[in-house]
């Protein structure tokens, strides 16, 4: 059986050995041809920060971007920095493609991260907080409040805060307490009024309470930070003691999870044990307020066993993730204008307003949906809910990577199982930071009679697939969905993703075989319209890139367009370099990490790299090849990273309908246009924002344009 993209090429499996020579290292390519992935990630988070600094954006959205930046950086330290340190400590080889030693790389990461965190703090103090105040939303300090406001807050503290606080003393009878990762704490120095002895205490700011406390009786919207309220009532916590000083601090721990699946008889039990261990991972970053005294800092460094390089001294407040809380305030004028997703034209009800029949629409033709511009609820969710209640549906098979236990997707699978249908849910319990939630609702599915499997040993199942088998007049028909994003109704409202619905029997057969292999033991390569990792996705893409290079040399139409979250894989990058050197225009649209350079003379002259960030998180993956004038376009779940190509089950589906191909290529043209606001990758990995035209007018916002274009679509009226 031949690879799906080879059907039109004349190349077959017999040429695998010859193809290996194509992907070997090319001595003609310069050694310094990759950007470091960790530093590129920091550059990505800087782009997020630039949105927070953009005074043209609604101010609550700017506050939200500050919170996103903070959460992103936390995860970067918990996973990437922690993993790099662990490899150094254990003596494991540290993969680096930029020629730096691991210790030098850590030092450079620390330098950049310090600069970014200081800039992040400044953005809040000097820009966003004053802009909020100008808009009537004040985050006040205790000193800003009058007597009546302080009295009201003191009552609030005594009733709602004081009962849940747990001050922990540190003395010979009380060892230094465990400091949980990402918790916000107060380090307090006190003096015993009777003995004159100085003591230390730690107080955790309760994470279950609102971070921003409304000031009672204040005119307009006025808040005070919870830690500020607590700090001004410390005397209530230490009666008879003199409070000398207090400072906020926050610790980040290694929270990456490592499971040796080959040695574990029960993946769930092993994962639960590892999650417990993760809580006690070693410290990797200590954030402190810039007014912390040396005595307190020295104590924290000693007790937490942390280095000076891992200390981040910042102007307060710490943990700006708390700004997410401000998104709950009722000021729609300070946010993006509301957007209600439309129902995809194919799924809209008919003229007599009957409920749309999803299966009938898919039978007519493939349906391509674009979230969040088009509704997840009236497409993906409706697809599964209709399957659950349809008596003709015999079986449902689905992969689940990140969702929620109360999700209508999970409920549809439960309803289907309880209705007597065969239901298979392939749950990826190793989805990072969602492991505990996934275990809970996986067990809920099992109790309802769903066949729950956990994929293949050593491979994460990251593909986004759903397959429904329906009995229609005595014959079985396959209805398939292949997506780029998770089956999660919540994130579908803020993640930009694509999904293809099809009744093509070939896709149905491909998915049937793939699901059987995922619940069995091995992934084979016999797929017609899919490219599947880990066996053949990499080779398939490399063949397509090589075909474009050959076409360019032969004078045929050639072009490559990739839209990905990250591009790191060296083989893919080198293939793009060779294609560019042969004259192939290469457009790369990347949201996050980009190890590909655009500044290598004679190599990257035909490579253009853009990044777009905004209201929605760009999450879809598109791979388009000119193919001599007969474009081939794929969508799916895979990024161009080692893990996606070698250690995950990923799937791309080829888009066949000419209208869909035209739509995706048009989407790409808009993104890469010089008239569209974006970041351009320049020399030495520097990203430069292009948001205004030469005359100072704003460039077009791609997401706004896409929203407006899709909202203009209308279902054609039925002829009478």
TrEMBL record:
Reported function: Catalyzes the reversible transfer of the terminal phosphate of ATP to form a long-chain polyphosphate (polyP).
Binding site for Mg(2+): 402, 432
Cofactor or coenzyme needed: Mg(2+)
GO biological process, one term: polyphosphate biosynthetic process
GO annotation, cellular component aspect: polyphosphate kinase complex
Reaction equation(s) it catalyzes: [phosphate](n) + ATP = [phosphate](n+1) + ADP
Record's keyword annotation contains Phosphoprotein: yes
Post-translational modification comment from the UniProt entry: An intermediate of this reaction is the autophosphorylated ppk in which a phosphate is covalently linked to a histidine residue through a N-P bond.
HAMAP family associated with the record: Polyphosphate_kinase (MF_00347)
Family the UniProt entry places it in: Belongs to the polyphosphate kinase 1 (PPK1) family.
Molecular functions (GO terms): ATP binding; metal ion binding; polyphosphate kinase activity
PROSITE patterns: PLD (PS50035)
Annotated NCBIfam families: poly_P_kin, PRK05443.1-1, PRK05443.1-2, PRK05443.2-2, PRK05443.2-3
Lineage, broadest ranks: Bacteria, Bacillati, Actinomycetota, Actinomycetes, Micrococcales
Annotated active site: 462
The protein's name: Polyphosphate kinase
UniProt source species: Microbacterium pseudoresistens
Record key words, sorted: ATP-binding, Kinase, Magnesium, Metal-binding, Nucleotide-binding, Phosphoprotein, Transferase
SUPFAM superfamilies in the cross-refs: Phospholipase D/nuclease (SSF56024), PHP14-like (SSF143724), PPK N-terminal domain-like (SSF140356)
Domain PLD phosphodiesterase: 614-644
InterPro entries according to UniProt: PLipase_D/transphosphatidylase (IPR001736), PP_kinase (IPR003414), PP_kinase_C_1 (IPR041108), PP_kinase_middle (IPR024953), PP_kinase_middle_dom_sf (IPR036830), PPK_C_dom2 (IPR025200), PPK_N_dom (IPR025198), PPK_N_dom_sf (IPR036832)
UniProt enzyme class: transferase
Basic residues: bias regions: 710-720
């Amino acid at each position: 059986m031949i690879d799906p993209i080879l059907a039109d090429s004349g190349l077959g499996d017999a040429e695998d050995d010859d193809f290996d020579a194509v992907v070997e290292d090319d001595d003609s390519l310069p050694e310094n041809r990759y950007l470091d992935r960790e530093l590129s990630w920091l550059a990505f988070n800087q782009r997020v920060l630039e949105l927070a600094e953009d005074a043209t954006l609604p101010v609550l959205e700017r506050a939200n971007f500050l919170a996103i930046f903070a959460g992103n950086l936390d995860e970067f330290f918990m996973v990437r920095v922690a993993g790099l340190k662990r490899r150094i400590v254990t003596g494991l080889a540290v993969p680096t493609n930029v020629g730096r030693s691991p210790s030098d790389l850590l030092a450079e990461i620390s330098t950049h991260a310090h600069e970014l965190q200081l800039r992040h703090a400044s953005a809040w103090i000097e820009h966003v907080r004053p802009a909020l105040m100008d808009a009537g939303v004040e985050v006040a300090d205790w000193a800003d409040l009058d007597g009546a406001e302080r009295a009201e807050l003191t009552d609030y503290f005594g009733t709602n805060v004081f009962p849940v606080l747990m001050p922990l003393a540190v003395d010979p009878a009380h060892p230094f307490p465990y400091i949980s990762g990402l918790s916000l704490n107060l380090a307090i120095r006190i003096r015993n009024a009777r003995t004159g002895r100085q003591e230390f205490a730690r107080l955790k700011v309760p994470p279950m309470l609102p971070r921003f406390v409304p000031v009672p009786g204040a005119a307009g919207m006025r808040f005070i930070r919870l830690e500020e309220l607590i700090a001004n009532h410390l005397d209530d916590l230490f009666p008879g003691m003199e409070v000398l000083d207090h400072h906020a601090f926050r610790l980040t721990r290694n929270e990456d999870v490592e499971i040796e699946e080959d040695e574990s008889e029960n993946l769930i039990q092993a994962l639960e044990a590892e999650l417990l261990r993760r809580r006690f991972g070693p410290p990797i970053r200590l954030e402190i307020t810039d007014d912390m005294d040396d005595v307190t800092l020295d104590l924290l460094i000693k007790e937490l066993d942390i280095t000076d390089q891992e200390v981040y001294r910042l102007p307060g407040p710490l943990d700006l993730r708390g700004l997410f809380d401000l998104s709950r305030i009722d000021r729609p004028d300070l946010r993006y204008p509301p957007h209600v997703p439309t129902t995809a034209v194919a799924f809209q009800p008919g003229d007599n307003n009957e409920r749309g029949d999803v299966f009938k629409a898919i039978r007519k033709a493939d349906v391509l949906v674009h979230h969040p511009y088009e509704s997840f609820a009236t497409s993906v969710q409706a697809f599964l809910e209709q399957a659950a209640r349809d008596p003709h549906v015999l079986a449902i098979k689905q992969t689940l990577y990140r969702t929620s236990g109360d999700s209508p997707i999970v409920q549809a699978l439960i309803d289907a199982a309880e209705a007597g249908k065969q239901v298979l849910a392939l749950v990826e319990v190793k989805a990072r930071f969602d492991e505990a939630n996934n275990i809970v609702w996986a067990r809920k599915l099992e109790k309802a009679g769903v066949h729950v499997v956990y994929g293949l040993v050593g491979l994460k199942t990251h593909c986004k697939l759903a397959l429904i088998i329906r009995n229609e007049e005595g014959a079985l028909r396959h209805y398939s969905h292949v997506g780029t994003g998770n089956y999660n109704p919540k994130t579908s409202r803020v993640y930009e993703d694509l999904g293809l619905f099809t009744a093509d029997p070939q896709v149905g057969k491909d998915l049937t075989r793939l699901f059987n292999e995922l619940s069995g033991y091995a992934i084979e390569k016999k797929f017609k319209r899919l490219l599947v990792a880990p066996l053949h996705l990499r080779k398939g893409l490399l063949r397509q890139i090589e075909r474009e290079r050959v076409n360019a040399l032969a004078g045929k139409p050639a072009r490559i367009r990739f839209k990905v979250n990250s591009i790191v894989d060296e083989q893919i990058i080198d293939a793009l370099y060779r294609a560019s050197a042969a004259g192939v225009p290469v457009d790369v649209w990347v949201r996050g990490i980009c190890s590909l350079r655009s500044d290598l003379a004679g190599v990257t002259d035909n490579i253009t790299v853009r990044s777009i960030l905004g209201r929605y998180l760009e999450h879809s993956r598109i791979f388009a090849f000119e193919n001599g004038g007969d474009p081939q376009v794929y969508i799916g779940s895979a990024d161009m990273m080692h893990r996606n190509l070698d250690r995950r089950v990923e799937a791309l589906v080829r888009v066949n309908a000419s209208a869909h191909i035209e739509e995706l290529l048009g989407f790409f043209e808009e993104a890469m246009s010089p008239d569209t606001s974006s970041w351009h990758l320049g020399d030495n990995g520097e990203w430069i924002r292009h948001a205004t035209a030469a005359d100072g007018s704003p460039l077009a916002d791609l997401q706004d344009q896409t929203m407006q274009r899709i909202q203009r679509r209308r279902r054609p009226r039925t002829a009478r």
